[in-house]
Structure formats: structure tokens, C-alpha cells
């Protein structure tokens, strides 16, 4: 199962990505979790100990794999570098969880034509299309840098949304973008719901958008952050709702697994 979590900043997408990774890895699933958000808050949210160097800053590795010098003028470099061994060698491991931070390509992001971009895109393509583990990508408010080929391997794009006009508009924008890139299953996850009125508001405004779950406002998340403890040890109501969401995702993924395998086979061949 390959998941990408996006949404307007501050809607809780990093918290959801961390919660899903925690729940699924504790269920004996091997999970690869990628922080692809420029803010890079996922390690702190998870409470993972250890030094995690952003992949884009591994200059010598990128130079070796793309056969050029990153950061300089590189008119010729390898567009499909070897990345199969990267997760085992360079990701942070904790029990069933493998974690990495992508980092930001300076001076143009993942849209630039440069060795760093080629390396990161090849790695994302490998993770989404060829790895057998559960992969969770914590994205920024958009998925353009995944590329059309990679997004075809995403099983679910989850868009975090709150009860508010700006969040709703961002959700609709991301959905439109994802459809254009070929993402097959797109769903909103409503977060910080405090009353039935907020739930009804989102159901009314998100016409044509599947709402996969409603997550309650849980003040224990902030309390846990202030105390420096993992939020899942305190936020009982939130974690129960995420567990139900994870079950729905797994059930839905089982129904579409054959379709995903065929889609992945075609994308691997094209890549």
C-alpha cells in the first residue's frame, strides 16, 4: 500500500502520517516513511532519535549515482541512477519503520533539471513502484514533484482538511491537480472536528470528494508536544479514529490490489 498525505499547512498531515506509520508498523507491517515536506517536522513528531541527514544534502552519494558533480553546471548526468540500496543503507531504522527526509533542492525545488532532482525522483519512483513495504509520503500542499509516472503507483492520496474556506479550497485544488496526474484514489480526511456542524459543513462543501474519515479535535496532541512525549501515548480519541481509518485503507487496498499490480507493472516497464 502506497499513501501520499497532502493538504494545507497546519491541517495535521504530518501528525496523520506519523500516526499511520506508528499504527501500521506496530501491526508487524514494514513501513517506509518519507518526509517530503520542506518544513521537515516529521522526525520530531515521531520522536525518532538519531541524526537524519536530508537525502538531497548527500552530495558525494548523488555525485556517484548520477555520475556528475551536484550543485554545479551539469549538462549531462544520469537520469535513472541506481537507488535500490538506498533505503537499507541510508534510512533511519526503528523496529519495522524506515525513515528518511528528502530535503529541498535549492534554487528551484524538485522541478529543476539537476542531478539532485534526478536522484530524488528516481528514489521516489523506486519506493512507490517497486518496494513491497507500505510507503507513506508526507507531502507539502501539492504533489507536482512526484511526476506523472510515480503518482500512478500511489494507492491513496489523502488530503487533510479542516472546517474552513481556505482549507476546503486547497483540498479542491489538490484534488484537481492529482486527477490531472493520474492518481486513481483521492480522499479527504477531515481533522480537528469539534462538533456536528463542522462535519456537516465539510460534507456540504466537499461535493464530489470522498471523505474517508473524520478525526476529532484532541487537545492531548498539543499537551503531549509540550511535555515532549509521543502524541499517541496521550491522544486516545485521535488514535482510535486513525486506527479505524487505517482499517478502511487496508480493506480498500485489498480490493484494488490486482489493479495496482497491473498498473505498477506498466509503470515499471515504462520507467
Unreliable stretches:
none
Radius of gyration: 18 Å
Please give the number of β-strands: 8
Quaternary structure type = single chain
Q: Which key features would you list for this structure?
A:
271 residues; alpha/beta; Rossmann fold; eight-stranded mixed β-sheet; 44% helix; globular
Question: How does this structure look, described?
Answer:
The chain is α/β, with parallel strands linked by helices and 271 residues long. The protein has a single domain (2-270), classed as P-loop containing nucleotide triphosphate hydrolases (Rossmann fold). The chain is built from 11 helices and 8 strands. Strands 3-4-2-5-1-6-7-8 form an 8-stranded mixed β-sheet, sandwiched between helices. Strand 6 (156-161), helix 7 (165-181) and strand 7 form a beta-alpha-beta unit. Helix 1 (13-26) packs across helix 10 (236-255). The longest helix has 20 residues, at 236-255. The chain is globular. The two termini are 20 Å apart. The model has no long low-confidence stretch (mean pLDDT 86).
Q: Summarize this, please?
A:
The chain is built from eleven helices and eight strands.
Set out the fold topology.
Elements: E1 2-7, H1 13-26, E2 31-35, H2 42-46, H3 59-66, H4 86-90, E3 92-94, E4 97-101, H5 115-129, E5 134-138, H6 148-151, E6 156-161, H7 165-181, E7 186-193, H8 196-205, E8 210-216, H9 220-227, H10 236-255, H11 257-270
Parallel strand pairs: 1-5, 1-6, 2-4, 2-5, 6-7, 7-8
Antiparallel strand pairs: 3-4
Helix pairs in contact: 1-10, 3-5
Amino acid at each position: 500500500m502506497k499513501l501520499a498525505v497532502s493538504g494545507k499547512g497546519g491541517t495535521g498531515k504530518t501528525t496523520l502520517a506519523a500516526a499511520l506509520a506508528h499504527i501500521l508498523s506496530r501491526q508487524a507491517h514494514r513501513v517506509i516513511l518519507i518526509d517530503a515536506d520542506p518544513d521537515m517536522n516529521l522526525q520530531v513528531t515521531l520522536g525518532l532519535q538519531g541524526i537524519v541527514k536530508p537525502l538531497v544534502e548527500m552530495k558525494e552519494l548523488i555525485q556517484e549515482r548520477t555520475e556528475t558533480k551536484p550543485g554545479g553546471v551539469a549538462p549531462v548526468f544520469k537520469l535513472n541512477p541506481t537507488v535500490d540500496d538506498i533505503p537499507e543503507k541510508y534510512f533511519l531504522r526503528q523496529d519495522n519503520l524506515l525513515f528518511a527526509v528528502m530535503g529541498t533542492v535549492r534554487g528551484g525545488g524538485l522541478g529543476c533539471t539537476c542531478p539532485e532532482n534526478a536522484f530524488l525522483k528516481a528514489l521516489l519512483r523506486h519506493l512507490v513502484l517497486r518496494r513491497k513495504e507500505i510507503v507513506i509520503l508526507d507531502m507539502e500542499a501539492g504533489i507536482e514533484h512526484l511526476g506523472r509516472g510515480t503518482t500512478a503507483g500511489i494507492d491513496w492520496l489523502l488530503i487533510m482538511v479542516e472546517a474552513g474556506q481556505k482549507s476546503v479550497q486547497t483540498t479542491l485544488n489538490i484534488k484537481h491537480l492529482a486527477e490531472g496526474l493520474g492518481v486513481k484514489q483521492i480522499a479527504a480526511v477531515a481533522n480537528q472536528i469539534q462538533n456536528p456542524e463542522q462535519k456537516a459543513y465539510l460534507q456540504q462543501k466537499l461535493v464530489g470528494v470522498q471523505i474517508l474519515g473524520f478525526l476529532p479535535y484532541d487537545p492531548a496532541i498539543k499537551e503531549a508536544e509540550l511535555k515532549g512525549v509521543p502524541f499517541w501515548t496521550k491522544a486516545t480519541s485521535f488514535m482510535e479514529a486513525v486506527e479505524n481509518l487505517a482499517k478502511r485503507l487496508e480493506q480498500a487496498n485489498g480490493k484494488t490490489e490486482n489493479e495496482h499490480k497491473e498498473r505498477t507493472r506498466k509503470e515499471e516497464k515504462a520507467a
